[in-house]
Amino acid sequence: MQISNRVESLAVSQTLAMSQKSAELKAQGVDVINLSVGEPDFNTPSHIKAAAVKAIEDNYSFYSPVPGYMSLRKAIADKLSRENGLHYDPSQIVVGNGAKHALANVIMATINAGDEVIIPTPAWVSYLELVKLAEGKPVLVATGLDQDFKITPAQLEAAITPATRAIIMCSPSNPTGSVYSRDELQALVDVFERHPQVLVIADEIYEHILYTGGDFVSLASFEAIADRTVVINGVSKAYAMTGWRIGYCAAPVQLAKAISKLQGQMTSGASSIAQKAAEAAYTGPQECVEDMRRAFERRRDLVVRLAREIPGLGVNEPQGAFYLFPEVSAYLGTTAPDGRTITTDSDLAMYLLEVGHVATVAGAAFCAPGYIRLSYATSDENLVEAMRRIKSALQELRKC
Ligand code: PMP
Ligand code: GLU
User: Which of 47, 96, 224, 384 could form a disulfide with 101 if both were Cys (CB 3.0 to 4.6 A apart)?
Assistant: First the structure.
């Protein structure tokens, strides 16, 4: 069987792979705590589920328009106006099968072979692979714990070349939880202003899971770059709807049309039922979003406190999303009691899974070796036990 070069050279999604591995161990009877995959552990709020049931009963069983139902696109445009102060016409919004699909659409619709795409790292697993799929050239810009994982204007300026076609920004960030302030974004926008060829792809899927105490600032709200910024967002995280698969992009009209053409050939409109549920999410009561946010903030405090009690871990205080990204290099170059050597963060993540029975994701999956990612979207009880297991597994390691 021939497998195309483009798929042969694609990496497996490590977040999904670690979650799968943890599920397999669980199925074998091993008591694993899964801190690998990033998804809310809450059920979808009842009024959203009820809207889906109604959609089924009302026979929303036919193909939807390729870019999504007009009523949903209007609800998204209203949300962007109400919450973000952004003014989009529904014709600028294309609904797809999750934010991941929306992002894939944007990349496929804008990147030609050899185009450079800047990806500040640590970066979510799919950015690099999607750019490679489009035959673009990923330009990774490394940021570390010392700069709270945020790209500086000087780093950005240095990374841009005449071949730069786009940048993928993610705030609040997966995997670090870092959030750019308005001033920090403004300083980056000042750089973008000097380089009008750069499309700004703003992944804002975690906008509601924010602990700064202030309002979320969308990159599209900066006038100077508004006409070349694409917002990626969706219902997965804010409304606990990861399995429903609804996300969208809000883009300049010409790009929205191009994406719609692409989607019309590849997937058609997203699930009719899930679209009606997403519409209820955007138009219905919003208290559920705040309730979940508060729970995540409490867990953030808990997990940061417990992680800081583990000697040798470098721990930032995430300001959004539901991930902790501790620096683990103090535990590399060690040997475990079972004789295995822990050379890389991937070795460490595997040791924590197989011996500590806690599933995490290696920093390497996010182009950031020397770290691991923990998702704290799980119960306090699980978090306390997971951190106890991690601490005791790490205490067993001896420098080679
Ligand atoms: N962007 C980021 C940064 C993510 O963490 C995720 C993970 N789910 C997505 C996009 C994709 O979300 P969706 O479930 O809507 O495809
Ligand atoms: N975005 C989540 C994560 O990073 C879900 C998995 C995925 O889509 O990669 O864990």
Answer: 96
Give the pTM.
Answer: 0.96
On the 0-12 / 13-18 / 19+ scale of CB atoms within 10 A, 1 is exposed
Output the CA–CA distances (angstroms, integers) from residue 75 to 135, 279, 363, in the order listed. Answer: 34, 6, 37
User: What is the C-alpha R_g of the chain?
Assistant: 21
Ligand 2: centre distance to CA 396 (Å): 30
- Per-residue pLDDT tens digits for 215-228: 999 999 999 999 99
Residues of the chain short of pLDDT 70, as ranges, are: none
pLDDT tens digits, 253-277 = 999 999 999 999 999 999 999 999 9
CA of 100 to the centre of ligand 2 (A): 9
8 Å CB contact between 357 and 33: yes
The residue whose CA has the least distance to atom 2 of ligand 2 is 38
- Per DSSP, helices labelled H in 145-207 are 153-159, 182-193
Specify the ligand 2 atom closest to the Cα of 36.
10
